[in-house]
Amino acid sequence: MAETKQVAVTIYMQTQTLIGFIYSYGERLSDVLNSLSPRREDRGRFVELHNVTIQHPDGREERLATSYINKAAIQLVTTTEGDLAKGIGGQVGAKPYPFVEKLPVSVRLQVPAYTIMGNLHCVSRGMTWHALEEKPMFMPLTNVSICQSDNSNWWRLSFAAVNRDQILSLIELETSPMGVRGGTGI
Asked: Which residue segment(s) compose the domain that 68 sits in?
């Protein structure tokens, strides 16, 4: 049986931000969020968060032992933990069959309260819109920059899982050695 691990996460919603821990039993964080975990209790519409701090827009904070968050209301989930080459909670070593290599594509996403820039990982020769149309609710991004829609303060993180149902628009960015040049809308 896999070891239980607490993964520190921040959950961004329209009305509040929640900081706490999700239990992982050897699964990747994106598998837990997408209900792909073999554990029955991880297959629902809610995420169980422990040791929770809720930050409200008015600056007020609440502390709770446990909170259950409706996945449909989540705009994105971030974490600073883990070896991203194998995924948060992934196992070290050879990738089991069927391993599919993916290539990073720089994108800018808009969700109701945030602008997100990062690398979306697409199957070789795949189109960005294919990744948008996939079935799992949460889409993983790496090398992420996030900004609240109402200000210009960006912060950087190594990983974010974005709720596909919350995406308002996605732009594939063209990059050059000097950085972002522009993009094509999707």
From this structure: 5-79
Q: What is the pTM of this model?
A: 0.79
If asked whether residues 109 and 152 sit together in one domain, one would say: yes
Q: Which helix (H) or strand (E) holds 10?
A: strand 5-13
Q: β-strand 61-70 against 138-148: which pairing, if any?
A: unpaired
Q: How many other CB atoms are found less than 10 A from the CB of residue 54?
A: 20
Q: Are residues 112 and 159 in the same domain?
A: yes
With respect to residue 70, please indicate whether it lies within any of the assigned structural domains. Answer: yes
Inside any domain, residue 162: yes
Q: Which tens digits make up the pLDDT trace of 82-136? A: 543 344 444 555 555 555 566 788 999 999 999 999 998 876 666 666 677 778 8
Structure tokens at 65: 């032992």
Looking at the fold, whether 106 and 175 belong to one and the same domain comes out as yes
Look at residue 65 and tell me if it is in a domain. Answer: yes
What are the pLDDT digits (tens) for 5-63?
888 999 999 999 999 999 877 778 888 888 876 654 556 889 999 999 999 989 999 99
**37 by DSSP, 3-state: which?**
coil
Phi, psi at residue 182, to the nearest 5°?
Answer: 170, -160
